[in-house]
Amino acid sequence: MKNKNAQAIHDKSMELLQTVGTRFLHPEAIEILKKHGVKVDGNIAYFTEDEIMKCVEMAPSKFKIYARNSKFDIEPGSGHTYIGPMMGGIKVLKKDGTLRTTTVDDVIKTDKIVEYNDRYHVNGGGICTPNDIPEDQFMLFELYAGLMLSSKIPPDVSGNYHTMELCYDVIAAAFGCSKEQLREKPRILAGMNVNSPLVVDTIMTETMFTNLKYRQPCYIAPAAMGGSTAPITAEGTIVQNNAEVLSTLALAQMYEPGAPVLYGSQSTAADMRTLAIAIGAPESALCYKYAGIMGKFYELPVRSGGLMTDAKKCDVQAGYEPMLSFLACEQNGVDVVLQGAGVLDAYLTFSYEKLISDFQIVDYVDAYLKDIDVNDETVPMEDMQEIGHDSSFITADSTLEYMRTAILDPIISVRGPKPQDTLEKNMDALIQKALDEYHSPDIPKECMDNMKKIVLDYGIDESYVKKIENARVL
Question: InterPro entries of this UniProt entry (predicted)?
């Protein structure tokens, strides 16, 4: 049954696109829109409902992205929720509560920890931003690091045409194919962001066009802030997010008909006292909820944010905010959850402890949403009749048979008579276990050599490249 608000959101979005339109800053975008008969005034495009829906219908409802390890292939639109960790943290929260800048060593360590968790299908490179790599190089370097250290789907990259082509050179080299062959077997979860309100800028246009050129599934994710870059009401923010996605999707389909795209949202509210983004706000969870709902309405796969928080440290706020936002995603059929572990302080800070805490949240939400299935196997009537009123089920046949699977065995949570610092010790132990058990992906030497040549020719310091090579453990 379709949500009662979906049609109203659609109708308001169509009104917005017909009366306000979307501003496209790239001249090539304007040319494409005009060529397809869209009304354009200067750099503002005004869409009819027919134009939008024709493009929506062109976009596939399901597609596949291929990981190096087929175990981590993903199929948005299949009804499964796939997860990727945080992206972009510029600081690391230390255990003593102080902050430090991120380094290449953090890139290596985080990739290895996420590689350990099979619930995560997206991994690599961009979890944190290494401050020891020049700004104009870290996009290429993070992609290289992720492809060398992870067997999972690499996350998106962004930049102008030149940067994007270099990134696709590395992706093609990593899999021993040409860039054109990537069209037949997509290897990356690509993406772009809309500038709210209702602007698609030049860099994001070139990012999207390059992704579509090689037909890599590309999410369109506004990050509108209610009360700042979007209307203050959640309803207004959701309508604007919807209009931003649809107008950008229309451009995408006009550029590359039938290209795989994901309906996206990273939208939330602004804090009205400070005007800071509030990624852990309940309005954030509402935006993710309605991304899932509107994706179903348009029969499009969905990407949104996930385990989000504005907390400055790993405290109770860093638990209840991420739990709500991830539950909203998975409960409403979001296909891909990015920013799905390690986030603190509204994207600025990464925490190893928060990463592990988020792993546990995912397990709890999965267990809750699995629900129950009442049948002869799950209701052990014979044991219940035999035990009756005065005994226990500790040694019952059903308990012995299902004790390892029927109840979630938490990876870090503390139960029973344990010391107060047990949770912290469990986190430390899991981090170390992930690092100790890490195995790098099996990559042909020729592919590694070709990747290395590209990044060295671009000017990335060889010492950092060697760090990545040395971090691989077979």
Answer: MttB-like_sf, MTTB_MeTrfase
Candidates 170, 165, 153; CA nearest to 210 is 165
* Cα distances (angstroms) measured from residue 313 to each of 251, 271, 323, 430, 458: 41, 19, 16, 19, 37
Residue found under tokens 């109770």: 316
> For residue 304, which of 366, 246, 241 has the smallest C-alpha distance?
241
Q: Which two tokens stand for residue 130?
A: 């290494």
pLDDT in tens, the chain (474 residues): 578 999 999 999 999 999 999 999 999 999 999 999 999 999 999 999 999 999 999 999 999 999 999 999 999 999 999 999 999 999 999 999 999 999 999 999 999 999 999 999 999 878 999 999 999 999 999 999 999 999 999 989 999 999 999 999 999 999 999 999 999 999 999 999 999 999 999 999 999 999 999 999 999 999 999 999 999 999 999 999 999 999 999 999 999 999 999 999 999 999 999 999 999 999 999 999 999 999 999 999 999 998 999 999 999 999 999 999 999 999 999 999 999 899 999 999 999 999 999 999 999 999 999 999 999 999 999 999 999 998 999 999 999 999 999 999 999 999 999 999 999 999 999 999 999 999 999 999 999 999 999 999 999 999 999 999 999 976
What contacts 154, CB < 8 A, 6 or more positions away?
A: 122, 123, 124, 125, 143, 146, 147, 171, 187, 188, 189
Nearest to 222 by CA among 64, 48, 22: 22
How far apart CA 127 and CA 137 sit, in angstroms, is 16
Tell the CATH topology of 70-370: TIM Barrel (3.20.20)
The structure tokens listed for 116 are: 């350990």
Q: Which residue has the tokens 């829109």?
A: 33
Cβ–Cβ under 8 Å, residues 174 and 143: no
State the CB neighbour count (10 A cutoff) for residue 58: 17
Q: In angstroms, how far is the first alpha carbon of the chain from the final one?
A: 50
Burial class (CB in 10 A: 0-12, 13-18, 19+), 257: exposed
DSSP code for 80:
P
**Among candidate residues 174, 166, 123, the one with its CA nearest the CA of residue 444:** 174
In the sheet that 277-278 helps form, which strands lie side by side, from edge to edge? 225-226, 268-270, 277-278
Give the DSSP H or E segment for 203. Answer: helix 202-213
Among residues 4, 1, 6, the alpha carbon closest in space to that of 302 is found at: 6
Cα angle 221, 227, 229 (rounded to 5 degrees) comes to 40
